[in-house]
Amino acid sequence: MGMLANLQAEIKGAIKHVFDYQLPDNQLIVSPTKKEFEGEYTFVTFPLVKALKNKPEVLGEQMGAYLKENSSIVSDFNVVKGFLNLSLNDGFWSTALSTVGDETFGSKPANGKTFMVEFSSPNTNKPLHLGHIRNILLGWSMAQIAEANGYKVIKTQVINDRGIAVCKSMIAWQDLGEGKTPESTGTKGDHFVGSYYVAFEQVFQKEYKAWQETDVGQEVFSSLAKEGQDAETFFKGYKNKYFNEYSAIGARTKEMLLKWEADNPEVKALWEKMNGWVYDGFETTYKKLGVDFDYNNYESETYLLGKEFVDEGLKSGVFYKKDDGSTWIDLESAKMDHKIVLRSDGTSVYVTQDLGTAHQRYEQYKMDHLVYVVADEQDYHFKVLFEILKRLGEPYADSLYHLSYGMVDLPSGKMKSREGTVVDADDLVEEVIGEARKASQERGGLEGISTEEQEEIYRKVGLSALKYFIIKVNPKKRMTFDPKESVDMQGQTGPYIQNAYVRIQSIFRKAGVTKADQPQEALEFNNLERDLIVQLSQYPHVLEEAFNKYDPSIIANYSYTLAKSFHRFYHDCRILNAETESLKQNRLYLSQTIGSILESSMQLLGMEMPEYM
Known about the structure:
Residues 414-420 have low confidence and may be disordered. The longest helix is centred in the middle third of the chain and has 25 residues, at 265-289. The chain has helices at 3-19, 46-52, 56-70, 90-100, 130-148, 164-176, 182-185, 189-212, 215-224, 231-237, 239-245, 248-261, 265-289, 299-302, 307-316, 350-365, 379-391, 425-443, 451-471, 483-486, 494-511, 527-537, 539-548, 553-572, 581-604; strands spanning 30-32, 41-44, 74-80, 83-88, 114-118, 152-159, 295-298, 320-321, 327-330, 338-342, 369-375, 400-405, 408-409, 479-480. Among the domains are: 3-88, Gyrase A, domain 2 (2-Layer Sandwich), CATH 3.30.1360.70; 432-604, Isoleucyl-tRNA Synthetase, Domain 1, CATH 1.10.730. By secondary structure, the protein is an alpha/beta fold. It contains 25 helices and 14 strands.
């Protein structure tokens, strides 16, 4: 029985003995006592009030007196309104320390269920950037957290490898590439292709600006501009229409897309070649970030999926047809509008593709959870998708979740891929590793370690700074990424937590041992030690809460709090020079356990611990 479970059993027994009442387990609320009150754990007496018809303070006093007299672990108590604060004896803390020191503490055994998470899902017309990093880190962390909670995990992505944006890069390379390749230019594949996507936009803007001065352009402005609207504002809003109706390079791009859909061999060969360059680049970035996928979906293979759902939905009355032949669904009863699922020409829209992909995944994997990690700009899309699947009666419809996250801004504003103003993921990784290297060299302490080992430490510290800065923010919050703040080695940062772990490793090196002995019984524990054990005991609940709320920031903030408590313990309590050998062994064991939990929790967030800093 775990330490908290043991206490809960004693409280439940006290309620039965004192009041002859069986409190339901879901009303047995026990949590760490707030810092401003005496005690280590608090039982909330309010659920007893209605059943026992007495004041919460009176109930607390009666229970506390019984526990102090009869419990094997409660040494004292105090009551504050409806809260019974319990102080526990040293025997409890000895047992508790052994419990939290178990190597498997925190993780749950396999539950036989499957958790699938879709994340990253990049476009093959541009490299991964800062926005992708937040997506990737959230998806990867949720996969690790699900595994720690007993699930079999499948990590997947949908690579958006077709469409007009991909054709833009292809057209630009045909016009401007002069046969160059990533190999011939020494350029990473996704960066190489992405540069032509930016080049296309530059060519298009030049063409568009010239057209605005033509007679046709001026006529369009005169006939369509709103009263008092200036030309700059009008043409800014008219750009997409110009691309589709007047643009020469736009017409060529659309023609290329039609040829791709018709399996034109030359277009398909160019498409495969350029996408191959991008995939090589993506894989390099994923490796730098320490992530991988179990399988990939490609939009070129899924964009025709879902049409069978439309036919079935029409027969059952879920969908309806308009006079132009397009197919729709009425979602007004779910407080949404009417949504098209099939165009009049028979082509599908994104939600139709997602219907087919979800069904295909369920047929193959029978997943119990399917989580989509996608920015909050797509909130409405997923509400529509989930509602349609429910109305179609799909058995997995209630197991779907959209892990919606806020966009990432720069201090200067939003990023724009077409204009080349994004923060490139590879550049960012190199920047934070460089900052870690600079800070470490200024501090010193790595003398005598080989250059290769030093570079590995810089990599671990730099990536921790980057990842922690992003993960510590609740996913739903929009965030501004400040490169300087992210690599700060002080405060609530990844390197601060790593430093606690490194201190613990240093303690063991100085002690000349690699592992601590089991804790000694019948020793007194001071307040700092008891607080640390309480924090450690919360780890399984933290993992469970992070999973249930789809929020890795819960683990990130727990790790920081634990590291902060250890730094205080390290400063205030003697470990290797403790008053007695038994006390030394207990403190070594406590330190070892803290290091283990810090390493475990950070690994769940994709961060590695160095041995030195």
